[in-house]
Amino acid sequence: MILTDRDILDAINDGSVLIEPAPPEEFYAPNGVDLRLDRRLSLYRAPAPGEDPVIDPSGPGYSFREAIARMAGEIDIGAEGFVLDPGRLVLGWTLERVDLRPGARLAARVEGKSSLARIGLIVHLTAPTIHAGSTGQIQLEIINLGPRPIRLRAGMKVCQLILEQTLGVPRRGYGGQFAGQRAAG
Questions:
Q1: Phi-psi group of 58: left, alpha or beta (phi > 0 → left; psi -120 to 50 → alpha; rest → beta)
Q2: What EC number is given for this enzyme (predicted)?
Q3: Is the preceding peptide bond at 21 cis, omega within 30 degrees of 0?
Q4: pLDDT tens string for the chain (185 positions)?
Q5: Alpha-carbon Rg of the chain, whole angstroms?
Q6: Percentage helix, strand, coil, to 5, in the chain?
Q7: Catalytic annotation present for 141
Q8: Contact 98, 133 (CB under 8 A)
Q9: Helix (H) or strand (E) holding 117
């Protein structure tokens, strides 16, 4: 069951979910709440001369954190914003920290905004699930599939959080490789 704006506010008020900083009233839709883009982005760079460009996610000892650290660098979105060229992928973060209390019977999804998708901006490219018990800022995979460059600005509404009630309480809260995500810096 997807929570309505009233249900989301009730969940925030009773401590089942924390969204910080608290979204203003106009960020709530009938069944979701808008989240904003943080000031930090991770930009991918071309392989260095002589570096093996192949990524092997199923290879022995693979670590996504190490792979990203080797091929991406952090930047701060300045006052002029960051221009995302067509075909380019960047990693971003939500400005808001979202904490789903493990016993609250809530999970969530992060979905892109249709107003951005219609100009070619895909936000949270895949794996939209935010597991029960997750805590922290949400990392976003952002790609421009449109024909023109798109300016990203810190603080812009970039995605929607859709909260869903689970049928039961999980045995444990989320503790996978993305547990406690937060933007660097």
A1: alpha
A2: 3.5.4.13
A3: yes
A4: 999 999 999 999 999 999 999 999 999 999 999 999 999 999 999 998 998 899 999 999 999 889 999 899 999 999 999 999 999 999 999 999 999 987 888 999 999 999 999 999 999 877 789 988 889 999 999 999 999 999 999 999 999 999 999 886 655 544 444 444 444 44
A5: 17
A6: 15, 40, 45
A7: yes
A8: no
A9: helix 114-117
